[in-house]
Amino acid sequence: MVDHGIELVAQTAVLRLDWDESHWCNLRLIIRGDSHELGADVLGVVVKRLHHGLSRQSIALSTASSERDQALWVLSLAEKHCSIFVDRKKEATVIYVQGADGSLVARVSLIEDERREWIRLLEQLLDEVASTERGDMDSEGRHDD
User: Fold this and answer.
1) What is the pLDDT of residues 75-125, one digit of tens each?
2) Three-class secondary structure of residue 66 per DSSP
3) Which residue range(s) make up the domain with 78?
């Protein structure tokens, strides 16, 4: 059962993250009304990896003629076994979703404002995850003698 969710919205697609009380997070990509189940992992891993991939300043702007030539691996998911790659191009940040068989499932372009908004939402979620993890550690680590 899904307890929480967030949508990362772009002009051409929506990346939906849904998670339960155990923080198991499912990712779904919606493009032109078509929904693609990408797989799942622990919420903290998903959010940290996506945030890292989108916010890295050291990704060289790609000048390669072939798509995905210089894309950075960001995340590989359990269950459906899709992988996510990011490539910073001059005009946009491009997210590639690769299927378990290596085929290209989707290509999503984010303009700079969209990329910044995704980063902002992921940062908020990172704070929530960190707060929850701290709370779990506090409750597990306390021993009254």
Assistant:
1) 999 999 999 999 988 889 999 999 999 999 999 999 999 999 999 999 999
2) coil
3) 4-115
